[in-house]
Amino acid sequence: MKKLFTLSLLAVAALTGANAADFPVKDKPISIVVPFAAGGPTDRVARDLAEAMRKPLGANVVVENVAGAGGTIGANKVAKASQDGHTVLLHHIGMATSPALYRKMPYNTTDDFEYLGMVNDVPMTLIGRPTLPANNFKELQAWIEQNKGKVNLGNAGLGAASHLCGLMFQSAIKTDMTTVPYKGTAPALNDLMGGQIDLLCDQTTNTTSQIEGKTVKAFAVTTAKRLTTPALKGLPTMQEAGLKGFEVTIWHGLYAPKGTPADVTAKISAALKVALKDPEFIKKQEALGAVVVSDKRVEPAEHKKFVTAEIAKWGPVIQAAGVYAD
Ligand code: ASP
User: Fold this and answer.
1) Model pTM score
2) How far is the CA of 90 from the centre of ligand 1 (A)?
3) What is the topology classification, in CATH, of domain 12-122+250-321?
4) Atom number, ligand 1, closest to the C-alpha of residue 157
5) What mean pLDDT is predicted for residues 84-113?
6) Within the chain, where are the H helices?
7) Domain residue extents for the chain
């Protein structure tokens, strides 16, 4: 009986193609899939994280951008990827908002992934094109009022953080805007700087240096408290600007396909914990207004609990907005 059990464990390892003894496979890179365009905020976090995880994993860690449909294309690719630990997903709050936005989800957020731990919390900022004739939130609201029906707002597709923030903004000021979807907020930010779109709500990991360089106009932050990052500390919170209850913080987490062996996911989670304590990683993230996770959400079970609570939190907000995709 015991022998049979050993044999079946071996068979499972052979089927899934991995166990901790041969993970990472020599000379095979570990790929962090980013479900948005290169050069954007999720990509930025992934590239810094890849660098910090290389040493503790003892492998080359690369970033692969699989963009589109608000992050669901990249997430779906990882849900169905080989369970050998060499393909993981870095995703943000879209993990929790997509289930309410898409009538037909190609994967199940809670059942189709192994949760590996959370990475950071990131505030968002409401920014505008440099030529916008408004220099603070009050002037922006007046300009939107005067231009009703003509204002457009970029985002990274249905289910993206920028989409959620844009929904909340439109609902808070009771004004509909034309939304312009991109494959990520890197191309959206380019168009904003070029004046093709008017407004964008995006993570500070993408907007801080543009705000600092004054290539965009900044109007507010989405956190409950003002930020301390030098370039952002003068910005009011949405609540200070008069939008009661407007508060949203984006978070990122790391995931492997469901069925990745536990000893392999344990190795990745352990490497993630080392990366989250790496002073260089922490410094880079802090300079962009992000806060590296140092609480219990670094544990996979707590990560899953947190995302489950976020699904319950954002589902009704999105349903109330009446937005969905088939
Ligand atoms: N910031 C984007 C979003 O709106 C995603 C990205 O391009 O990283 O979700």
Assistant:
1) 0.91
2) 12
3) D-Maltodextrin-Binding Protein; domain 2 (3.40.190)
4) 4
5) 94
6) 2-16, 41-57, 72-79, 94-101, 137-146, 161-172, 185-193, 204-212, 262-276, 279-287, 300-321
7) 12-122+250-321, 123-221
